[in-house]
Amino acid sequence: MNPYEYVETHRDAFLDELFEFLRIPSISTLSEHAADVRRAAEWLKAHLEGIGMTHVELVETARHPIVYAEWLGAPGAPTVLIYGHYDVQPVDDPEGQWQSDPFEPVLRDGNIYARGATDDKGQTLTQIKAIQALLASGQMPINVKFVIEGEEESGSDNLYPFVDQNAERLAADVIVISDTGMKSIDRPSVVYGLRGIAYMEIEVRGPRQDLHSGMYGGVVHNPAQALVEILAKMHDEQGRVTVPGFYDRVDEVSAEERAELAKTPLPEEQLRSETGVPAAWGEPGFAIHERLAFRPTLEINGLVSGWTGEGAKTVLPAKALAKVSCRLVPRQDPHEIFGLVRDFVRAQTPPTVTSEVRLLHHGMWAVVDLKSREMQAALQAYEFGFGKRPTFVREGGSVPIVGALQRALQAPVVLMGFGQQDDNLHGPNEKFALACFEGGLRTTLRFYELIGQRG
Length: 455
Ligand code: BES
Ligand code: MN
Ligand code: MN
Prior knowledge:
alpha/beta; Aminopeptidase; Alpha-Beta Plaits; 6-stranded mixed β-sheet; 4-stranded antiparallel β-sheet; 22% strand; binds ligand BES; binds manganese (II) ion
């Protein structure tokens, strides 16, 4: 049986296994789920052993384990390092928008609905199942190493030292990552750039403890107010970031890149229908798709202070907290940006309160070479798997470890994403289309065959 027949005849089994994996609520950012995160790692370990990987190991870290696996039985053939993540985002569904239990996957209208369906359990399993099919059919054209981490959604803190300390062991001819998306299944696209990130927390403190707002309001600077005053200064009226130095290292967009990107525009109307907002917003002088791909941003991710429970409570809160993240583009440095934001907040903090800015996590931006042999093979593979030649896009999201892998291993990266723009990752009703799973399997099989032939 060839590997294509193998995936066709094993479709139902693959789906059962994906459902099993999706049932584990491996939310890496919430400590009460630490045992579930470990369970997902152990599930993967057993699974990778089951498909015939010869060396499988749980690498312990200060937090969640890294799953490492190898099969090096094709001497002389190229080696592929496959990266993925088995952790998922929290559910956070105050308005009850999930139509089914996020950890009880269901197949509805050709889509698999569950937290992690596309990000990244479904996509990681696509890679694993392709390798299973190649091994089972005795037609393995490559050597393979898997690194599957459990902390991507919380910034990959413990993966950085692992990559740095194990560069030799991880050595590969190409790095493959299925953790991005396509425009849609009818308009396949390959991601060649991701933004970096600097994720921060800004805390403003005033009185020692919460005060009666009638007894002290008007004479004590309210920390919630002081915080929003600072935050409000971080953009100008048109949406440009005002933090001094923020844009200093940002490159101009080349005419060539602009033209490539213009093949996959995001018209305002589409943005409105995708998100439900009444109008687009953002930096003047750039099309919407350019703002997402080539421009850095500063976002307020969350804001907490004072009474937010039921009813009214007249309180002057002792502190206020904002979660703020910057998406970064080529040549910006996350640590430098953190320093700029910290200095800005310091300079804008009035003497009536105190403030502190903390860096929670960071990741480098990444741009991959469009002209590498591997990228050319990927284009062919997508055409085979999805019936159309894909376009190139740069994504607004981040996968923090990509830049570090590129640098440590000095190998080309191929971002073989199989998700779609409307998969609702991180939101309610996250999904992964069955057709993307199947097309992704065919694409991956073809890609490894092509890579192997070139060995
Ligand atoms: N898979 C996503 C990143 C992504 C999504 C890339 C869509 C391209 C298109 C990843 O799991 C993710 O969510 N990353 C976080 C990074 C962070 C928590 C450090 C992100 O981008 O917010
Ligand atoms: Mn992901
Ligand atoms: Mn994610």
